[in-house]
Amino acid sequence: MPRRLAVAAETFPIAGRFTIARGSRTEAVVVTVAIESEGRLGRGECVPYPRYGETVESVVRQIESARSAVSEGADRTALAALLPPGAGRNALDCALWDLEAKTAGVAAHVLAGIDRLGPVTTCYTISLDTPEAMAEAARKAADRPILKVKLGGLMHDPERIAAVRAAAPEATLVVDANEGWSEDTIAANLAACAAAGVALVEQPLPADRDAALAGLSRSIPICADESVHDRASLPRVADLYDAINIKLDKTGGLTEALALVEEATVRGLSIMVGCMVGTSLAMAPAMLLTPRARFVDLDGPLLLAEDRPGGLTYEGSIVYPPTPSLWG
Description:
This protein has helices spanning 56-65, 67-71, 76-82, 87-104, 108-111, 131-140, 157-167, 186-195, 234-237, 248-251, 254-266, 280-286, and strands at 4-20, 23-37, 40-46, 120-121, 124-126, 146-150, 172-176, 200-202, 222-224, 243-246, 270-273, 295-296, 314-315, 318-319. It is of the alpha/beta class. The chain folds into 2 domains: 4-106, Enolase-like, N-terminal domain (Enolase-like, domain 1, 2-Layer Sandwich), CATH 3.30.390.10; 120-319, TIM Barrel, CATH 3.20.20. This is Dipeptide epimerase. Residues 131-223 form the Mandelate racemase/muconate lactonizing enzyme C-terminal domain.
């Protein structure tokens, strides 16, 4: 019996404004996929990202281009040959994982060879703003164990990180510059991060200019985000960075993400599990990466005004594995 595939775009308001070095947003637009087979339904969600040349329309077109193959039974391996890494393949891949788990009657993490999936502590994001506004946001979140601080402004990043540290003296701080620094500013900004006791700095330089990291003296580990997507992009960055941020929307799904974890670990790179701003349906498959991660950044639903019904359970910054009714 052929599978049935449904695709939809959904919009979820963000609580306030989410701002990074590339701009601000007040809503998250996601694309969801549902694959039905013999009364069982598998679901996946992705977030089209303009930084990677994606729009909602282009991602929907990609998914539609695979409709016939998926309807006729294409598995996750076949899917990787049909579509490039990116949001569209991610939604389909995760929906197939969910469908496989429900068909087998076994949790997705067991199918992936993971013995146990437990609760983890996620980062909580402080958006880019003035030092004063970021300090106020940090004070309100000071009871959260790990804060991810968005930097990358043309000026005042040392003041921003100092203000956040003063407002949240006990928190572990991770800085994400979103490609917003340059060869001229990186040394001073890293020094400010070191003075604030920052634990990790994410993507300080533009992906096409990160070769400058090769000779850079550092006291803080540096993590690749925009510079690494899947295993094919790993060799170029392996000697430049100390860690990589794995996001399912970049890898093209959980299947490639699990393989990327293995290869990156062999190369001695630490793992961060990240996300775009989406709902719990997008976070749920990424939970399978958390047992191998040094840092977990799956706070997308916490940034929304309201998550989708039946979402993940968050207790402060503790996030629990999904129930089968959500995914997997």
